[in-house]
Amino acid sequence: MLTFAISRDVNIKPSAPVWLFDLDNTLHNASHAIFPAIMANMNTYIARVLGDGITPADTEAVNAARTLYWKRYGATLLGLMRHHNVSAAHFLRETHDMDGLLSMIRHEKGLGHLLRRLPGRKILLTNAPHRYSTMVLRHMGIHRQFAHHIAIESMRVHRQLRPKPSKLLLRKVMRHQRVPARRCILVEDTLANLRTAHALGMRTVWVTQYLKVGDPIGAAHPPKRLTRPGWVDVKVKSVRNLPARLARLR
C-alpha cells in the first residue's frame, strides 16, 4: 500500500497540475558527493552478497551484477532481492548510511520560493529511502512545500516493490491522488522515468544541470549529448526555469 510520509491540506483548483518531483540530481546536486558515497556503499554491499561468506566478490563481478540488474529490472535493488534474497530495508539502510550527509548537499537557493510559485500540488516521488530523503528535504528547507512525500519504501504494488520507472507505480500514484495523467507533470533527471510517464499521458520535464556522463549511479547515466527526446515536453537546466516554461506544460 502506498503511504505518504508528509501530508498537509493544500487549497488548489480542481484543474491545477499535480507536480511529481524527483529528488536526487533534480532538486539538488547528488553527483557532487552523495552519489559517489552511495556507490561505494553499494559496491561493498554487493561484494559481500556475491562473496562466499568469507571473501567478498571482486570489482569486476560487482560491476557486472550491478549493471545487469539495473538494465533488467530498472533498479539494482530489485535484482538483488530476486536473485539473492536481499532485504530491501537492509540494503537501503546500509547504502544510504553516510557520515556527514548534510555537508555533502549542494543545491540552489530560493527553491522554496520557486515551489510556492508553481500552481498546483507538489509531491516528492523518489527512489531514495524515506530517512535519507527527509533529511535532504529538511536541510534544504523545502519539506513543507510538498503535499506528499513518496519514498521507495512506499512504492509497493500488489505487495511487490515497484520503484520508478514502473507504470504500475505511476498508475497507483494517480489513483491515490485522484487525478488523470494529463494533469500530472513529472520533473526528473532520469530519461527512463520520463519515458514511462509520457507513455501514460503525463507531461514531462527533464532537468539536466547535474547530469554527468559516467555518473557512478547507473540510473542517472545521461546521453553524451543532452538532446531533448520526443517523450520530454520541456528540457530545463534547472528547476528554477520552470515558471518561465509553464505555457509549454499546459
From TrEMBL:
Pfam families: Hydrolase
Gene3D superfamilies: 1.10.150.450, HAD superfamily/HAD-like (3.40.50.1000)
PANTHER family listed in its UniProt record: HALOACID DEHALOGENASE-LIKE HYDROLASE
NCBIfam families: HAD-SF-IA-v3, Pyr-5-nucltdase
Entry protein name: Pyrimidine 5'-nucleotidase
